[in-house]
Fold each of these.
Amino acid sequence: MRLGILISGRGSNFEAIANSIARGNLDAGIAIVISNRANAAGLEIARERGLPVRVIPSQGLDREAYDALLVDELRTHEVELVCLAGFMRLLSAHFVRAFPDRVLNIHPSLLPAFPGLDAQRQAFEHGVKITGCTVHFVDEFLDSGPILMQSAVPVLDSDTVETLSARILAQEHAIYSKSIQLVAEGRVTIEGRRVRIREEDVS
Ligand code: GRF
């Protein structure tokens, strides 16, 4: 399955996906890495690995015009599944319709709790005892599409936002690759808000 990865910053989720592929745990290939920011650290990781990279800045473009550029680039690289990995832009309905049920995102909370920015801090300051991360299909609303996989992370008395975020991030890295593998194996179907995962074939 040909992946298009969209990033804006550090790129650790992208790197975890690339590592899963390199280790043979994820049956996919990265067709293109796109960033809306030229200084995204993740771009360097992609270049070092010899992956195709493209910077598409969004300045001066409205959302639909920008998303049309993204769609063109992803289609040029024959992308079959779009993976948002710290991509700090809301996508338009136009974009979502171009890749129906084929756009995933990772979010650092147990959605629908704490959508939006700084989710780990939101959870920490709210005082929840359990938070975590979510892989979900993307619709045109913020952090709102059908949920594919979640991992729970307990909040410890000794935690700071930083230590909590680090444990959540480790789970993000684990469940994003697993989720992509399930899609690649054709085991995932969306029924309304519910995502069903077919049992593994044991033949
Ligand atoms: C992650 O916490 C992810 O859940 C959120 O943005 C952050 C991106 O981190 N959507 P990285 O760029 O993958 O390191």
Amino acid sequence: MRFLILSDIHANRHALEAVVADAGVRYDRIVCLGDIVGYGAEPNATSDWVRTNVPVVVRGNHDRACTGDAVIEEFSDNAYQAAQWTLPLLTEENCRWLTGLPRGPVPVEDFFLCHGSPADEDEYVTSTYEAAFQYRYLPAEVCFFGHTHLQGTFAMRPGKAWYLDPSSVLAVEPDTAYLINPGSVGQPRDHDPRAAYAVYDSDARIAEFRRVKYDIAGAQKAIREAGLPEYLASRLAQGR
Ligand code: ZN
């Protein structure tokens, strides 16, 4: 089975549409690692699409903050303002659906999905040091995660963790565990503004990382017209 792996869409309809078009017929099924809303200007469009098309979704911290969870108190000013703006805008159906999303890790076939880390849904895994700490919490050899908005993989063996660049295809090796980040669809932060995603073939055990150009100006215009903080628009062009 080939899985389209989406994460951190962040109410960016323009980026989501470009990713789905680019993925074409490369996948059989879609999964999502959370943060469908927050930051961007079209939370209902992205929620409607994921709710309709994605059978397995784990919740992200922004999905919680935008539906009234106290996690909003830990947010930066811009994230806080966007969450406050999103809450009253969500349709009742989307609000109920987002509120009911499960906390990761959630199993899919023989791999798992989480938002932050296997140990803590709100934790950022950005270094081999942090990845090595996750080794004992890994529920399976392959676990997908998001939250950092950084595309790439941490590979682990007992007492050892290393980083694998997303520029090459990842082939899962025996006796090795993997934390794989598909990158962010709607707000990449690795200085590449193109929308990021991954496709995982669970039979061949191969993950392919992809980037696609999208209508950044369109997403920025929507953010500005919504009256959201200017930084949330400008950062999209810089990929940070
Ligand atoms: Zn996010």
